[in-house]
Write a structure and sequence with these properties.
The chain is α/β, with parallel strands linked by helices. It is 45% helix and 10% strand. The protein is elongated, with a radius of gyration of 27 Å. Among the domains are: 80 residues, Up-down Bundle (Four Helix Bundle (Hemerythrin (Met), subunit A)), CATH 1.20.120; 154 residues, 3-Layer(aba) Sandwich (Rossmann fold), CATH 3.40.50.
């Protein structure tokens, strides 16, 4: 019996030690963002694509200082190797070339049941164009969400040209309608994305909008566009309120080999995530940092103020070169109300119009541009990973009329 007692005591002691370690191990696992392909803001500086220089010294973790009012607690952007045990491997994809996308999206718009171009062609090809026809033309444009002022402008221009033409063939009608629509969509607006890296800092882009318009998905798709253009991209998951938003963004990034800076604490300060993402982008010499923000209703003053704070905090490190407002094309005139408020808070530089294939309208493109003086820069016509492309005025009008 005396021989057995020491063995029993040893086993009990070993179990006690193991029991004490389990909570520590679980806690450690919980606090680490385990996404292959993500980078920590404190990781060694990585060489940019095409560069031969490699700097081995890591950025100093002890120097992390946040602006006043920004909470960095809980921010964890730990890097996990691609072959980390127990993690599902996500194969890196090669995004489609940008040029090919535009043709495919145009074909989808042609197939959509738009009432704008087809309706106008039918009306203006009538044997006799009287006041009743012009009233119908006006109604068609208003129903297509073109807006009152652009509608009057277009109707006046069409009246004058039809009067000059006198006898009209369907081909003539299509030509004049195309020319006037292109004018009003305005091909002179600068629709280029401001994503050129500065001498010592990356270009910074914020993506904003209300709940449910697809901001996170748009950020992921736009990352694919930039990767297809051979740019080094880093994502910042500043949507800290929607469940799984950060994981969703990180998954988009992993698909194209783009790292993501995120917090593991739900409801963390979004400004801190944005700040750390830009800091990591500077340290790692990437070309573009894209910041995904939480959806917010335009009539919620506190949330809109918070969005302004995110932008101000980021600007302590680098200029925000692009602020894209994501709008759902199917919301029509309500999208204009959203656009006005967001533009007052963060100075919108471009519009991303999603779900354009889900509306029979299309005039919202003109209405938004006229209201804000801000160009539609990107359009989405589907749910596929590469269903996002640069907006081109002439291609858009041609799709409406075909």
């Amino acid at each position: 019996m005396n021989d057995i007692l020491p063995i029993i005591l040893s086993i009990v002691a070993a179990l006690a030690v193991i029991g004490g370690l389990i909570p520590v191990l679980l806690k450690t696992r919980k606090n680490i963002t385990q996404y292959p392909g993500t980078r920590d803001a404190n990781d060694p500086v990585l060489p940019r694509s095409g560069s031969t220089a490699v700097e081995d010294s890591p950025a100093a973790a002890t120097d992390r200082k946040a602006p006043d009012g920004v909470d960095l607690e809980g921010l964890d952007t730990t890097t996990v190797p691609d072959d980390a045990a127990g993690l599902e491997a996500i194969q890196v994809e090669t995004p489609l070339p940008v040029a090919g996308r535009l043709m495919r999206l145009r074909e989808r718009l042609v197939r959509s049941n738009n009432i704008m171009g087809k309706g106008l062609l039918a009306l203006l090809s009538s044997d006799k164009i009287d006041e009743n026809v012009w009233d119908e033309v006006e109604e068609t444009l208003l129903l297509a969400d073109l807006g009152t002022e652009p509608t009057m402008q277009l109707v006046d221009a069409l009246r004058e040209r039809v009067k000059v033409l006198g006898t009209r063939t369907p081909e003539q009608v299509k030509v004049l309608l195309r020319e006037e629509l292109i004018k009003i969509v305005d091909p002179t607006m600068d629709r280029t994305l401001n994503v050129q890296r500065h001498a010592d800092k990356p270009a910074v882009m914020m993506v904003v909008g209300v709940n449910g318009v697809g901001k996170t998905t748009t950020v992921g798709k736009l990352a694919r566009v930039l990767v297809a253009e051979d740019k080094d991209v880093l994502l910042g998951a500043a949507d800290t309120f929607r469940a799984a938003a950060a994981e969703q963004l990180a998954t988009w990034g992993q698909r194209v080999g783009v790292p993501t800076v995120k917090s593991d604490i739900e409801g963390a300060d979004p400004a801190s995530v944005a700040y750390e993402a830009v800091k990591a982008g500077i340290d790692q010499e990437v070309d573009v940092v894209m910041i995904d923000t939480a959806g917010r209703l335009q009539n919620k003053v506190g949330l809109m103020d918070e969005l302004g704070k995110v932008k101000r905090v980021v600007e302590k490190l680098a200029e925000v070169d692009e602020v894209l407002l994501v709008l759902d094309a199917t919301t029509g005139q309500n999208g204009l109300n959203q656009a006005r408020v967001f533009s007052e808070v963060v100075n919108i530089t471009g519009i991303v119009l999603t779900k354009l294939d889900g509306t029979a309208k299309g005039g919202i493109v003109v209405a938004i541009q006229k209201t804000l003086g801000v160009p539609v820069k990107l359009i989405g016509l589907g749910e596929g990973a590469d269903d996002l492309a640069p907006f081109e005025a002439e291609a858009f009008v041609d799709a409406l009329l075909n």
